[in-house]
Fold XK-related protein.
Amino acid sequence: MYHRSLRSFLPDKEKQRPASSALHFLWNLLLVSSRLVALALFASALPCFIFAHFLCSWALLLLAAWRSQTDFMDGPGGERLYRGAVALVWYFDWFNVAEGRTRRRALLYHGYALADVAALCGLWCWTLSAGPPGFPPRWVVAVAVVAVYVVGLLLKMVYYKWFHPNVARDELRGVADETDFHARPEADGEAARVRFHAVPEAVSLRSDADVMDRGGPSAAAAPDATRYNKRMRKLAENFYS
């Protein structure tokens, strides 16, 4: 659903193949599942250290999110909360939160994540090495978890090489979202109806101060006060450009 919401901003979204969405889902599934299994194995062997691992990883990822200089929320307090949430998401998977080329940032993140998955699985094997052998052998399980992450990375490279549309931010179209729209009632003797209005790219959100300056609260119901979901568009800009 997140991927298709981003696709709604593409000018040629009807030309996108279903294989693109399937591949996008598959590599995310492999990366997240490998990460979760590695964390579960580590927690089963060293449950007291999983919280320390989370806090240290989250602090490191929060620093990376802070250095990305995100500009997503309207105020500084909301931006700090957003960066903390980004670090929490990055603990499990990567998504782009800043403008510009992201290859270097993605390589750094996935290098860190792959090393962390390998370390977690290695510590799990080492901690339980004194116990009775299991089936399949523990080292086979650890190698399989790391291999799943590597396969997910390879599928991600295939997606970005042949399926990912690269468009400039000016080429993205504006779309009205059902959570952020202007309702226009029609006084035709029947019950008022609500219409959703898409807006061009140049139209931006108006602040409450602008509305008050143009005539008070009644101006908020003006027919031309159309809005679109600017945060979803921001995510689309970061993902496609």
Residues 175-214, 217-227 have pLDDT under 50 and may be disordered. Residues 174-241 form one domain. The helical segments are 2-7, 18-45, 50-67, 76-90, 103-127, 138-163, 208-213, 230-240.
